[in-house]
Amino acid sequence: MASREEKTENLKKSLLDANNYNRPMICEECGGIMVFKGVGEYKCEDCGQVEYDDYGKVRNYIEKHSGATSAQVSEATGVTQKAIREMLKEERLEIAPTSNAFLICEICGKPIRSGRYCGRCEAAYHKEIEEKARAARNINMSGFGTEKSTGEEGSKRFTRER
Ligand SMILES: [Zn+2]
Ligand SMILES: [Zn+2]
User: Fold this and answer.
1) Closest ligand to Cα 124
2) Is 162 contained in some domain?
3) What tens digit of pLDDT does each residue of 7-41 get?
4) Which of 11-20, 51-60, 82-91 has the lowest mean pLDDT?
5) Residue 155 to residue 72: CA distance in whole angstroms
6) CA of 126 to the centre of ligand 2 (A)
């Protein structure tokens, strides 16, 4: 039997795609669904725990420490320098609000200031991930429930006669 930790890891892996910057899917505290709040920030819909994806971590650090090198950012956030360079390459961290340059939403093609999607498409994209996480969690419910909901099932395993 896979442990709760293994199940959580497998679930995370099955939900991850290459471009979502280690988006938190499942609350580390209670197993709830992490709901997108904007700019790399996520909040557990059950307990309110706030977590950040890699982009959120890097962005927060750069806001407080402007001029930091990618090595310093990497050291402080635990995000690899390679991932930080990818973000810079995508210009997720470089386009200022006053810049004339604009990016295009990858889904609907609307001009945007930063990131890969416009606000509407990004919200829809995260909703979809949250739905997937919710569905996957329901399949694996016994692995993600709180102690009170798994206690009964767990005890049955030990009633087998010797
Ligand atoms: Zn939670
Ligand atoms: Zn869009």
Assistant:
1) 2
2) no
3) 666 655 555 543 568 889 999 999 999 999 988 89
4) 11-20
5) 49
6) 13
Mean pLDDT within 72-82: 92
Query: Taking the complete model, does pTM exceed 0.70, yes or no?
Result: no
Ligand nearest to the CA of 47: 1
Structural domain containing residue 75: 4-156
**Residue 144: which of 20, 41, 34 has the closest Cα?**
34
Closest ligand relative to 50 C-alpha = 1
Q: Give the Å distance between the CA of 113 and the centre of ligand 2.
A: 12
Question: Which residue is associated with the tokens 């890097």?
Answer: 58
Domain total in the chain? 1
* Nearest ligand for residue 125 CA: 2
User: Is residue 161 assigned to a domain?
Assistant: no
Dihedral sign computed on CA atoms, order 39, 53, 122, 29: negative
* CA of 119 relative to ligand 2 center, distance in Å: 7
